[in-house]
Specification:
With 474 residues, the protein is an all-alpha fold. It has 21 helices and no strands.
Length: 474
Protein backbone atom coordinates (compact mmCIF):
# COMPACT_ATOMS: atom_id res chain seq x y z
CA UNK A 1 0.00 0.00 0.00
CA UNK A 2 2.81 2.37 0.90
CA UNK A 3 4.55 1.64 -2.41
CA UNK A 4 1.36 2.41 -4.34
CA UNK A 5 0.88 5.72 -2.51
CA UNK A 6 4.51 6.64 -3.13
CA UNK A 7 4.12 5.79 -6.82
CA UNK A 8 1.02 7.97 -7.26
CA UNK A 9 2.64 10.81 -5.28
CA UNK A 10 5.69 10.82 -7.57
CA UNK A 11 3.52 10.73 -10.70
CA UNK A 12 1.22 13.55 -9.53
CA UNK A 13 4.12 15.75 -8.44
CA UNK A 14 5.84 15.20 -11.79
CA UNK A 15 2.69 16.10 -13.73
CA UNK A 16 2.18 19.23 -11.62
CA UNK A 17 5.79 20.26 -12.18
CA UNK A 18 5.43 19.77 -15.95
CA UNK A 19 2.30 21.96 -15.99
CA UNK A 20 4.07 24.70 -14.02
CA UNK A 21 7.04 24.65 -16.40
CA UNK A 22 4.76 24.84 -19.44
CA UNK A 23 2.82 27.80 -17.97
CA UNK A 24 6.01 29.67 -17.15
CA UNK A 25 7.44 28.93 -20.58
CA UNK A 26 4.26 30.14 -22.31
CA UNK A 27 5.01 33.71 -21.11
CA UNK A 28 8.43 33.71 -22.79
CA UNK A 29 9.02 35.40 -26.14
CA UNK A 30 10.33 33.32 -29.04
CA UNK A 31 13.89 34.05 -30.29
CA UNK A 32 12.48 35.39 -33.59
CA UNK A 33 9.14 37.22 -33.85
CA UNK A 34 8.14 35.38 -37.05
CA UNK A 35 9.33 31.93 -35.98
CA UNK A 36 6.53 29.32 -35.81
CA UNK A 37 5.33 28.28 -32.38
CA UNK A 38 6.15 24.71 -31.36
CA UNK A 39 2.47 23.66 -31.09
CA UNK A 40 -0.03 24.96 -33.65
CA UNK A 41 -3.06 25.73 -31.53
CA UNK A 42 -5.18 26.71 -34.57
CA UNK A 43 -4.91 23.25 -36.20
CA UNK A 44 -7.41 20.59 -35.22
CA UNK A 45 -6.23 17.23 -33.96
CA UNK A 46 -7.62 15.46 -37.06
CA UNK A 47 -5.88 17.86 -39.46
CA UNK A 48 -2.59 17.51 -37.61
CA UNK A 49 -2.85 13.71 -37.66
CA UNK A 50 -3.74 13.71 -41.37
CA UNK A 51 -0.82 15.99 -42.19
CA UNK A 52 1.63 13.93 -40.15
CA UNK A 53 0.54 10.66 -41.79
CA UNK A 54 0.78 12.22 -45.25
CA UNK A 55 4.33 13.40 -44.60
CA UNK A 56 5.44 10.10 -43.05
CA UNK A 57 3.99 8.00 -45.88
CA UNK A 58 6.19 9.92 -48.30
CA UNK A 59 9.42 8.63 -46.75
CA UNK A 60 11.38 5.91 -48.61
CA UNK A 61 11.07 3.48 -45.71
CA UNK A 62 7.29 3.87 -45.53
CA UNK A 63 7.01 3.31 -49.29
CA UNK A 64 9.11 0.17 -48.99
CA UNK A 65 6.84 -1.19 -46.26
CA UNK A 66 3.75 -0.44 -48.37
CA UNK A 67 5.32 -2.24 -51.33
CA UNK A 68 6.22 -5.26 -49.21
CA UNK A 69 2.67 -5.48 -47.83
CA UNK A 70 1.15 -5.34 -51.31
CA UNK A 71 3.68 -7.73 -52.85
CA UNK A 72 3.36 -10.37 -50.11
CA UNK A 73 -0.43 -10.43 -50.40
CA UNK A 74 -0.43 -10.49 -54.22
CA UNK A 75 2.28 -13.14 -54.52
CA UNK A 76 0.66 -15.45 -51.98
CA UNK A 77 -2.77 -15.02 -53.57
CA UNK A 78 -1.63 -15.68 -57.13
CA UNK A 79 0.65 -18.50 -56.01
CA UNK A 80 -2.25 -20.31 -54.34
CA UNK A 81 -4.60 -19.70 -57.26
CA UNK A 82 -2.14 -21.13 -59.78
CA UNK A 83 -1.33 -24.03 -57.46
CA UNK A 84 -5.03 -24.90 -57.32
CA UNK A 85 -5.07 -24.78 -61.13
CA UNK A 86 -2.23 -27.31 -61.28
CA UNK A 87 0.62 -24.92 -62.09
CA UNK A 88 3.78 -24.41 -60.03
CA UNK A 89 3.49 -21.59 -57.51
CA UNK A 90 6.36 -19.81 -59.24
CA UNK A 91 4.09 -19.18 -62.24
CA UNK A 92 1.61 -17.44 -59.97
CA UNK A 93 4.39 -15.32 -58.51
CA UNK A 94 5.46 -14.28 -62.01
CA UNK A 95 1.88 -13.40 -62.93
CA UNK A 96 1.57 -11.42 -59.70
CA UNK A 97 4.43 -9.29 -60.97
CA UNK A 98 2.62 -8.69 -64.26
CA UNK A 99 -0.60 -7.90 -62.39
CA UNK A 100 1.16 -5.34 -60.19
CA UNK A 101 2.82 -3.75 -63.21
CA UNK A 102 1.64 -0.87 -65.41
CA UNK A 103 -0.28 -3.16 -67.78
CA UNK A 104 -2.96 -4.13 -65.23
CA UNK A 105 -2.63 -2.43 -61.83
CA UNK A 106 -1.38 0.76 -63.46
CA UNK A 107 -4.21 0.65 -66.01
CA UNK A 108 -7.02 -0.15 -63.56
CA UNK A 109 -5.90 2.11 -60.70
CA UNK A 110 -3.27 4.58 -61.94
CA UNK A 111 -3.40 6.70 -58.79
CA UNK A 112 -2.88 3.76 -56.46
CA UNK A 113 -0.15 2.37 -58.73
CA UNK A 114 1.72 5.68 -58.69
CA UNK A 115 1.47 5.80 -54.90
CA UNK A 116 2.62 2.21 -54.27
CA UNK A 117 5.37 2.10 -56.90
CA UNK A 118 6.76 5.61 -57.45
CA UNK A 119 9.76 5.60 -59.82
CA UNK A 120 12.18 6.81 -57.16
CA UNK A 121 11.46 3.74 -55.00
CA UNK A 122 12.31 1.11 -57.62
CA UNK A 123 16.13 1.05 -57.16
CA UNK A 124 15.71 -0.06 -53.54
CA UNK A 125 13.22 -2.72 -54.59
CA UNK A 126 15.62 -3.92 -57.27
CA UNK A 127 18.51 -4.30 -54.83
CA UNK A 128 16.42 -6.35 -52.41
CA UNK A 129 15.19 -8.48 -55.30
CA UNK A 130 18.74 -9.23 -56.44
CA UNK A 131 19.75 -10.21 -52.90
CA UNK A 132 16.74 -12.52 -52.72
CA UNK A 133 17.53 -14.36 -55.94
CA UNK A 134 21.18 -14.75 -54.93
CA UNK A 135 20.24 -16.30 -51.57
CA UNK A 136 17.79 -18.62 -53.27
CA UNK A 137 20.33 -19.76 -55.84
CA UNK A 138 22.82 -20.43 -53.04
CA UNK A 139 20.27 -22.70 -51.37
CA UNK A 140 19.61 -24.47 -54.68
CA UNK A 141 23.35 -24.95 -55.14
CA UNK A 142 23.58 -26.65 -51.74
CA UNK A 143 20.75 -29.02 -52.66
CA UNK A 144 22.37 -30.24 -55.88
CA UNK A 145 23.55 -33.85 -55.68
CA UNK A 146 27.19 -33.75 -56.82
CA UNK A 147 27.22 -37.49 -57.50
CA UNK A 148 24.48 -37.02 -60.06
CA UNK A 149 26.35 -34.06 -61.53
CA UNK A 150 29.52 -36.08 -62.12
CA UNK A 151 27.61 -38.94 -63.71
CA UNK A 152 25.60 -36.56 -65.92
CA UNK A 153 28.38 -34.12 -66.91
CA UNK A 154 28.64 -35.25 -70.53
CA UNK A 155 24.87 -35.24 -70.95
CA UNK A 156 24.60 -31.77 -69.41
CA UNK A 157 27.14 -30.20 -71.77
CA UNK A 158 25.62 -31.85 -74.85
CA UNK A 159 22.04 -30.94 -73.94
CA UNK A 160 22.83 -27.37 -72.91
CA UNK A 161 24.88 -26.59 -76.01
CA UNK A 162 22.32 -28.17 -78.33
CA UNK A 163 19.60 -26.14 -76.60
CA UNK A 164 21.58 -22.98 -77.37
CA UNK A 165 22.85 -23.54 -80.91
CA UNK A 166 19.61 -24.75 -82.53
CA UNK A 167 17.23 -22.08 -81.15
CA UNK A 168 19.93 -19.45 -81.70
CA UNK A 169 20.02 -20.37 -85.40
CA UNK A 170 16.22 -20.28 -85.59
CA UNK A 171 16.13 -16.87 -83.91
CA UNK A 172 18.71 -15.43 -86.30
CA UNK A 173 16.70 -16.80 -89.23
CA UNK A 174 13.48 -15.32 -87.85
CA UNK A 175 15.19 -11.92 -87.70
CA UNK A 176 15.24 -11.81 -91.51
CA UNK A 177 11.44 -11.50 -91.53
CA UNK A 178 11.10 -9.18 -88.52
CA UNK A 179 14.01 -6.76 -88.85
CA UNK A 180 12.40 -4.25 -91.21
CA UNK A 181 9.31 -3.74 -89.02
CA UNK A 182 10.45 -4.32 -85.44
CA UNK A 183 14.10 -3.30 -85.13
CA UNK A 184 15.02 -0.59 -82.64
CA UNK A 185 16.33 2.84 -83.61
CA UNK A 186 20.00 1.91 -83.03
CA UNK A 187 19.89 -1.62 -84.43
CA UNK A 188 21.90 -3.02 -87.29
CA UNK A 189 20.79 -6.33 -88.75
CA UNK A 190 23.75 -8.09 -87.12
CA UNK A 191 23.01 -6.80 -83.63
CA UNK A 192 19.26 -7.37 -84.03
CA UNK A 193 19.69 -10.92 -85.33
CA UNK A 194 22.12 -11.80 -82.54
CA UNK A 195 19.70 -10.54 -79.89
CA UNK A 196 16.87 -12.52 -81.47
CA UNK A 197 19.09 -15.59 -81.32
CA UNK A 198 20.01 -15.08 -77.67
CA UNK A 199 16.36 -14.48 -76.73
CA UNK A 200 15.44 -17.89 -78.17
CA UNK A 201 18.27 -19.79 -76.47
CA UNK A 202 18.10 -18.66 -72.81
CA UNK A 203 16.89 -20.92 -70.00
CA UNK A 204 15.65 -19.31 -66.77
CA UNK A 205 17.86 -20.89 -64.14
CA UNK A 206 16.01 -19.45 -61.07
CA UNK A 207 12.55 -20.30 -62.41
CA UNK A 208 13.61 -23.82 -63.38
CA UNK A 209 15.06 -24.28 -59.90
CA UNK A 210 11.80 -23.13 -58.29
CA UNK A 211 9.77 -25.54 -60.44
CA UNK A 212 12.03 -28.42 -59.42
CA UNK A 213 11.81 -27.41 -55.77
CA UNK A 214 8.01 -27.09 -55.84
CA UNK A 215 7.75 -30.59 -57.32
CA UNK A 216 10.29 -32.02 -54.86
CA UNK A 217 12.61 -33.40 -57.56
CA UNK A 218 15.68 -31.22 -57.06
CA UNK A 219 17.78 -34.11 -55.72
CA UNK A 220 16.61 -36.70 -58.25
CA UNK A 221 18.77 -37.63 -61.27
CA UNK A 222 16.33 -35.72 -63.49
CA UNK A 223 16.47 -32.63 -61.27
CA UNK A 224 20.25 -32.67 -60.97
CA UNK A 225 20.69 -33.11 -64.72
CA UNK A 226 18.19 -30.35 -65.49
CA UNK A 227 19.88 -27.97 -63.05
CA UNK A 228 23.30 -28.76 -64.49
CA UNK A 229 22.04 -28.28 -68.05
CA UNK A 230 20.43 -24.97 -67.09
CA UNK A 231 23.58 -23.81 -65.28
CA UNK A 232 25.82 -24.63 -68.25
CA UNK A 233 23.20 -23.16 -70.59
CA UNK A 234 22.96 -19.86 -68.77
CA UNK A 235 26.71 -19.43 -68.25
CA UNK A 236 27.18 -20.11 -71.95
CA UNK A 237 24.27 -17.84 -72.85
CA UNK A 238 25.58 -14.96 -70.74
CA UNK A 239 29.01 -15.41 -72.28
CA UNK A 240 27.39 -15.22 -75.71
CA UNK A 241 25.43 -12.20 -74.48
CA UNK A 242 28.69 -10.47 -73.56
CA UNK A 243 29.98 -11.31 -77.03
CA UNK A 244 26.80 -9.94 -78.63
CA UNK A 245 26.93 -6.74 -76.57
CA UNK A 246 30.59 -6.30 -77.47
CA UNK A 247 29.81 -6.60 -81.17
CA UNK A 248 26.72 -4.39 -80.93
CA UNK A 249 28.56 -1.65 -79.08
CA UNK A 250 31.70 -2.02 -81.25
CA UNK A 251 33.78 -2.51 -78.13
CA UNK A 252 35.89 -5.34 -79.54
CA UNK A 253 36.43 -8.93 -78.46
CA UNK A 254 39.11 -8.31 -75.85
CA UNK A 255 36.57 -7.90 -73.06
CA UNK A 256 34.79 -11.12 -73.99
CA UNK A 257 38.02 -13.14 -73.97
CA UNK A 258 39.00 -11.65 -70.62
CA UNK A 259 35.58 -12.53 -69.16
CA UNK A 260 35.94 -16.17 -70.20
CA UNK A 261 39.42 -16.35 -68.70
CA UNK A 262 38.27 -14.78 -65.42
CA UNK A 263 35.31 -17.15 -65.16
CA UNK A 264 37.62 -20.14 -65.63
CA UNK A 265 40.04 -18.89 -62.97
CA UNK A 266 37.17 -18.19 -60.57
CA UNK A 267 35.67 -21.68 -60.97
CA UNK A 268 39.06 -23.31 -60.38
CA UNK A 269 39.67 -21.24 -57.23
CA UNK A 270 36.21 -22.03 -55.84
CA UNK A 271 36.36 -25.78 -56.54
CA UNK A 272 39.99 -26.52 -55.70
CA UNK A 273 40.63 -23.77 -53.16
CA UNK A 274 37.61 -22.49 -51.23
CA UNK A 275 35.84 -25.88 -51.17
CA UNK A 276 38.78 -27.48 -49.33
CA UNK A 277 39.40 -24.47 -47.09
CA UNK A 278 35.88 -24.09 -45.67
CA UNK A 279 35.82 -27.35 -43.61
CA UNK A 280 39.00 -26.20 -41.85
CA UNK A 281 37.41 -22.87 -40.89
CA UNK A 282 34.19 -24.42 -39.53
CA UNK A 283 33.98 -26.20 -36.18
CA UNK A 284 33.88 -30.00 -36.50
CA UNK A 285 30.89 -30.20 -34.18
CA UNK A 286 28.88 -28.02 -36.55
CA UNK A 287 29.85 -30.22 -39.50
CA UNK A 288 28.75 -33.34 -37.61
CA UNK A 289 25.23 -32.12 -36.83
CA UNK A 290 25.58 -29.31 -34.29
CA UNK A 291 23.76 -25.99 -34.54
CA UNK A 292 25.40 -23.49 -36.89
CA UNK A 293 26.91 -20.58 -34.96
CA UNK A 294 26.57 -16.91 -35.84
CA UNK A 295 30.23 -16.79 -36.81
CA UNK A 296 29.85 -19.69 -39.23
CA UNK A 297 26.71 -18.20 -40.73
CA UNK A 298 28.59 -14.92 -41.20
CA UNK A 299 31.37 -16.84 -42.98
CA UNK A 300 28.82 -18.51 -45.28
CA UNK A 301 27.20 -15.17 -46.09
CA UNK A 302 30.63 -13.66 -46.79
CA UNK A 303 31.37 -16.44 -49.30
CA UNK A 304 27.98 -15.89 -50.97
CA UNK A 305 28.45 -12.14 -51.26
CA UNK A 306 32.07 -12.38 -52.42
CA UNK A 307 31.24 -15.00 -55.04
CA UNK A 308 28.20 -13.09 -56.31
CA UNK A 309 30.20 -9.85 -56.36
CA UNK A 310 32.94 -11.38 -58.48
CA UNK A 311 30.63 -12.87 -61.11
CA UNK A 312 28.60 -9.67 -61.23
CA UNK A 313 31.72 -7.53 -61.65
CA UNK A 314 33.04 -9.56 -64.59
CA UNK A 315 29.72 -9.45 -66.47
CA UNK A 316 28.25 -12.85 -65.54
CA UNK A 317 25.14 -12.43 -63.40
CA UNK A 318 25.58 -12.50 -59.61
CA UNK A 319 23.22 -15.45 -59.21
CA UNK A 320 25.75 -17.79 -60.83
CA UNK A 321 28.35 -16.87 -58.25
CA UNK A 322 25.83 -17.52 -55.49
CA UNK A 323 24.91 -20.89 -57.01
CA UNK A 324 28.57 -21.93 -57.25
CA UNK A 325 29.07 -20.86 -53.62
CA UNK A 326 26.28 -23.27 -52.66
CA UNK A 327 27.81 -26.19 -54.53
CA UNK A 328 31.21 -25.85 -52.80
CA UNK A 329 29.81 -25.78 -49.26
CA UNK A 330 30.97 -28.64 -46.97
CA UNK A 331 29.29 -31.88 -48.01
CA UNK A 332 27.87 -32.61 -44.54
CA UNK A 333 24.13 -33.16 -44.98
CA UNK A 334 23.28 -31.89 -41.49
CA UNK A 335 25.38 -28.74 -41.96
CA UNK A 336 23.67 -27.93 -45.24
CA UNK A 337 20.24 -28.53 -43.70
CA UNK A 338 20.98 -26.10 -40.85
CA UNK A 339 22.21 -23.39 -43.23
CA UNK A 340 19.27 -24.06 -45.54
CA UNK A 341 16.83 -23.65 -42.65
CA UNK A 342 18.38 -20.29 -41.75
CA UNK A 343 18.31 -18.79 -45.25
CA UNK A 344 15.76 -20.51 -47.47
CA UNK A 345 12.49 -19.57 -45.78
CA UNK A 346 13.27 -15.88 -45.54
CA UNK A 347 14.53 -15.58 -49.10
CA UNK A 348 11.73 -17.64 -50.66
CA UNK A 349 8.85 -15.97 -48.83
CA UNK A 350 9.96 -12.33 -48.84
CA UNK A 351 12.97 -11.50 -51.00
CA UNK A 352 12.61 -13.79 -54.01
CA UNK A 353 9.05 -12.64 -54.85
CA UNK A 354 10.47 -9.12 -55.11
CA UNK A 355 12.56 -10.36 -58.02
CA UNK A 356 9.47 -11.56 -59.87
CA UNK A 357 7.44 -8.45 -59.06
CA UNK A 358 10.19 -6.00 -59.98
CA UNK A 359 10.58 -7.63 -63.38
CA UNK A 360 6.81 -7.54 -63.86
CA UNK A 361 6.86 -3.81 -63.15
CA UNK A 362 9.14 -3.31 -66.15
CA UNK A 363 6.98 -5.19 -68.68
CA UNK A 364 4.32 -3.54 -70.87
CA UNK A 365 1.92 -6.22 -72.05
CA UNK A 366 -0.52 -3.53 -73.22
CA UNK A 367 1.76 -2.71 -76.16
CA UNK A 368 0.49 -5.77 -78.05
CA UNK A 369 -2.48 -3.98 -79.59
CA UNK A 370 -2.83 -5.10 -83.24
CA UNK A 371 -3.45 -8.37 -85.10
CA UNK A 372 -0.12 -8.30 -86.87
CA UNK A 373 1.69 -8.24 -83.53
CA UNK A 374 -0.50 -11.08 -82.23
CA UNK A 375 0.28 -13.24 -85.27
CA UNK A 376 4.01 -12.64 -85.06
CA UNK A 377 3.90 -13.28 -81.32
CA UNK A 378 2.36 -16.71 -81.96
CA UNK A 379 5.04 -17.44 -84.56
CA UNK A 380 7.78 -16.46 -82.10
CA UNK A 381 6.31 -18.71 -79.39
CA UNK A 382 6.11 -21.64 -81.82
CA UNK A 383 9.66 -21.20 -83.11
CA UNK A 384 11.07 -20.75 -79.60
CA UNK A 385 9.35 -23.88 -78.28
CA UNK A 386 10.26 -26.05 -81.27
CA UNK A 387 13.90 -24.99 -81.16
CA UNK A 388 14.49 -25.21 -77.41
CA UNK A 389 12.34 -28.18 -76.44
CA UNK A 390 13.08 -30.16 -79.59
CA UNK A 391 16.85 -29.71 -79.53
CA UNK A 392 17.10 -30.44 -75.79
CA UNK A 393 14.98 -33.58 -76.09
CA UNK A 394 16.94 -35.04 -79.00
CA UNK A 395 20.30 -34.21 -77.40
CA UNK A 396 19.24 -35.80 -74.09
CA UNK A 397 18.08 -38.94 -75.90
CA UNK A 398 21.30 -39.22 -77.90
CA UNK A 399 23.37 -39.01 -74.70
CA UNK A 400 21.76 -42.13 -73.24
CA UNK A 401 18.64 -40.89 -71.45
CA UNK A 402 15.21 -42.46 -71.89
CA UNK A 403 12.42 -40.76 -73.81
CA UNK A 404 10.56 -39.86 -70.64
CA UNK A 405 13.56 -38.16 -69.06
CA UNK A 406 14.55 -36.55 -72.37
CA UNK A 407 11.12 -35.04 -72.96
CA UNK A 408 10.96 -33.72 -69.41
CA UNK A 409 14.43 -32.19 -69.74
CA UNK A 410 13.29 -30.56 -72.98
CA UNK A 411 10.24 -29.11 -71.22
CA UNK A 412 12.39 -27.77 -68.38
CA UNK A 413 14.98 -26.25 -70.71
CA UNK A 414 12.14 -24.46 -72.52
CA UNK A 415 11.59 -22.40 -69.36
CA UNK A 416 12.77 -18.84 -70.02
CA UNK A 417 11.09 -16.66 -67.42
CA UNK A 418 12.83 -13.71 -65.84
CA UNK A 419 16.38 -14.39 -66.99
CA UNK A 420 15.01 -13.89 -70.49
CA UNK A 421 13.49 -10.58 -69.42
CA UNK A 422 16.88 -9.41 -68.14
CA UNK A 423 18.43 -10.11 -71.53
CA UNK A 424 15.53 -8.41 -73.32
CA UNK A 425 15.92 -5.30 -71.21
CA UNK A 426 19.58 -5.10 -72.23
CA UNK A 427 18.58 -5.14 -75.90
CA UNK A 428 15.84 -2.60 -75.28
CA UNK A 429 18.14 -0.24 -73.38
CA UNK A 430 20.70 -0.43 -76.20
CA UNK A 431 18.05 0.59 -78.74
CA UNK A 432 18.27 -2.74 -80.60
CA UNK A 433 14.80 -4.04 -79.72
CA UNK A 434 11.77 -1.83 -80.34
CA UNK A 435 8.91 -1.73 -77.81
CA UNK A 436 6.82 -3.90 -80.13
CA UNK A 437 9.27 -6.81 -80.46
CA UNK A 438 10.22 -6.41 -76.82
CA UNK A 439 6.60 -7.03 -75.82
CA UNK A 440 6.30 -10.06 -78.10
CA UNK A 441 9.41 -11.62 -76.61
CA UNK A 442 8.20 -10.93 -73.07
CA UNK A 443 4.95 -12.76 -73.79
CA UNK A 444 6.94 -15.60 -75.35
CA UNK A 445 9.04 -15.88 -72.18
CA UNK A 446 5.97 -16.02 -69.93
CA UNK A 447 4.13 -18.47 -72.19
CA UNK A 448 7.00 -20.94 -72.46
CA UNK A 449 7.41 -20.80 -68.68
CA UNK A 450 3.71 -21.47 -68.08
CA UNK A 451 3.91 -24.45 -70.46
CA UNK A 452 6.59 -26.17 -68.37
CA UNK A 453 4.39 -27.63 -65.64
CA UNK A 454 1.70 -29.12 -67.90
CA UNK A 455 4.34 -30.52 -70.27
CA UNK A 456 6.22 -32.16 -67.39
CA UNK A 457 3.01 -33.81 -66.24
CA UNK A 458 1.99 -34.82 -69.77
CA UNK A 459 5.34 -36.36 -70.68
CA UNK A 460 5.53 -38.22 -67.37
CA UNK A 461 2.03 -39.66 -67.68
CA UNK A 462 2.54 -40.54 -71.35
CA UNK A 463 5.71 -42.44 -70.55
CA UNK A 464 4.04 -44.29 -67.68
CA UNK A 465 1.19 -45.35 -69.97
CA UNK A 466 3.65 -46.61 -72.58
CA UNK A 467 5.56 -48.58 -69.96
CA UNK A 468 2.32 -50.04 -68.64
CA UNK A 469 1.23 -51.13 -72.11
CA UNK A 470 4.60 -52.67 -72.89
CA UNK A 471 4.86 -54.63 -69.64
CA UNK A 472 2.48 -57.56 -70.52
CA UNK A 473 4.37 -58.38 -73.73
CA UNK A 474 7.56 -59.18 -71.84
Amino acid sequence: MKRALAYFFVVLVSIAAIIVVLRVGATMLPPEPNAPVGIATTTSLWDALHQAIGVNLGTPLAHLFVQLLVIIVAVQFFGRVFTQLGFPSVIGEMMAGVFLGPSLFGLLAPGAFAFVFPPQSLPTLQMLAQIGVCLFMFVIGMEVNMTHLRSKASSAVAVSHASIVVPFLMGVTLAIFLYAETAGPKATFTSYALFMGISMSITAFPVLARILQDRGITNTPLGSLALTCAAVDDVSAWTIMAFVVAISSAGGLGGVVMTIVLVGIFVVIMIFGVRHLLPRLIDKQELSGGEVSHGTLALVLWVIVASAFFTESIGIHALFGAFLAGTIMPSSVSFRKHVNHRLEKFSSVLLLPLFFVFTGLRTRVDLLNDWSSVLWCLVIITVATAGKLGASTIAAKLTGNGWRESLQIGALMNTRGLVELIALNIGYDMGILSPRIFTMLVIMALTTTIMTGPLLTLFGETSHRKLGQAQPSR
